[in-house]
């Protein structure tokens, strides 16, 4: 636990960034402004003060989170330390559904479906050239 955070007020955007829910502090502030971070069902502003015991509900691109604050952090720390400062209360079924949907829309082509790869195209061209020579 940071001693500086216990003496000062800690903003929610800085806290969410420090526990690695959002990649940047500006993304955390933007999520608050767009109403994606809620305390007891109501949206919070980025300047809201965080207190131990608060339960926040938030949405990121990857998944929905429900966390309970167990410690205050005012700077970014490694993941192994960050997870000690909150408790993840998200139901497992919501985590699985989100994980499934994000992997489905990755934009990557499934194997053996769609356009041929460069190697497959070369093989096809070589195969097609051999056929035309045999027909003559």
Structure overview:
Helix content is 41%, strand content 14%. By secondary structure, the chain is α+β, with helices and mostly antiparallel strands. It has one domain: Roll (Structural Genomics Hypothetical 15.5 Kd Protein In mrcA-pckA Intergenic Region, Chain A). A 5-stranded antiparallel β-sheet has the order 2-1-3-4-5. Helix 2 crosses helix 3. The radius of gyration is 24 Å and the shape is elongated. The N terminus is likely disordered.
TL;DR of this structure?
The radius of gyration is 24 Å and the shape is elongated. α2 (12-18) packs across α3 (25-33).
Offer a few descriptive terms.
HSP15; elongated; 136 residues; alpha+beta
What share of the residues does DSSP label as strand, in percent? Answer: 5-15%
Helix content range: 40-55%
Number of E strands: 5
- CATH H-level superfamily: RNA-binding S4 domain
**Contiguous runs where pLDDT drops below 50 for at least 5 residues:** 1-6
User: CATH first level: which class?
Assistant: Alpha Beta
Overall mean pLDDT = 80
Assigned CATH architecture = Roll
Number of domains: 1
Q: What letter string, H or E per element, gives the SSE order?
A: HHHEEEEHEHH
Please describe the biggest sheet, giving its number of strands, its sense, and whether it closes into a barrel. 5 strands, antiparallel
Overall outline = elongated
Question: What's the CATH topology name?
Answer: Structural Genomics Hypothetical 15.5 Kd Protein In mrcA-pckA Intergenic Region, Chain A
Helix count from the secondary structure assignment:
6
Compute the separation of the termini in Å: 81 Å
- Derived from helix and strand composition plus strand pairing, the structural class reads alpha+beta
Radius of gyration: 24 Å
Strand order of the largest sheet: 2-1-3-4-5
């Amino acid at each position: 636990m940071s001693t500086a955070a216990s003496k000062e007020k800690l903003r929610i955007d800085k806290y969410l960034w420090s526990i690695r829910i959002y990649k940047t502090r500006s993304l955390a502030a933007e999520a608050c402004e767009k109403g994606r971070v809620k305390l007891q069902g109501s949206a919070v502003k980025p300047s809201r003060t965080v207190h131990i015991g608060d339960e926040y509900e938030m949405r990121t691109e990857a998944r929905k989170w429900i966390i309970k604050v167990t410690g205050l952090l005012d700077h970014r720390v490694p993941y192994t330390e960050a997870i000690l400062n909150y408790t993840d209360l998200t139901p497992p079924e919501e985590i699985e559904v989100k994980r499934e949907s994000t992997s489905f829309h990755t934009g990557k082509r499934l194997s053996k479906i769609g356009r041929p790869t460069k190697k497959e195209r070369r093989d096809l061209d070589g195969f097609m050239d051999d056929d035309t020579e045999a027909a003559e």
